[in-house]
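We emphasize that the prediction below concerns an isolated chain of 200 residues; any contacts that depend on oligomerization or on bound cofactors are therefore not represented. The input was used exactly as deposited, without trimming of termini.
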Amino acid sequence: MEKTDIEILTKFAESTNRSIISKELPYPLTGVRTFRKYKRIIYIPNNPENTSYFIWFSDPYAKIGFPTIFSGAFIALSPDIQSKINIRNKNIFDKLNILSKTKSNKIGNARFDSKVVISGNIDYSTQKLLSQIKIQEQLLNALDSEQFMNISLNEYKIDFIPEFKTASYLSIINPQRWSLEENNIEKIFTQIEEIRQLIN
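Result of the prediction step, given as a token string:
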């Protein structure tokens, strides 16, 4: 029998001596909704100090008409960083400026700005953080680690983890699917920890 996602992640946590928290919250059935759907939340701290977390989240009704699914590694930031932004690799359409009508923010480093699209509003604290060359290099490496990877600041509500109830966060995130491959999870954990060490 094929293993479920939670079984795969539980085995991963056990094999790496990490704890795992899993929640499955059912939506009520209605006259229109006869097939039960669930909000699913799974997270694994990287170490006993909880310096970073890997989160898997799925909610069919998170946004009206749009399901939300993502997985990725998260670190807490200073609450001074209030911006909600998304950073992704520039694609061919962005470079040709055919389909992209949204003006991308610029950080001020030509190499970094030429490779990414930054959407959202950048406050002073975020600008200062993203202007650091070493952090820019780590972010570019993370974006190239897997297809569809994004860097996300404060885009999602993740206050189900105590450390993120009041803190801002930065994450290396796949906004389209759950990452279940052990090597990928460990690689992203390593990348987010390298970013955290540069920030602290």
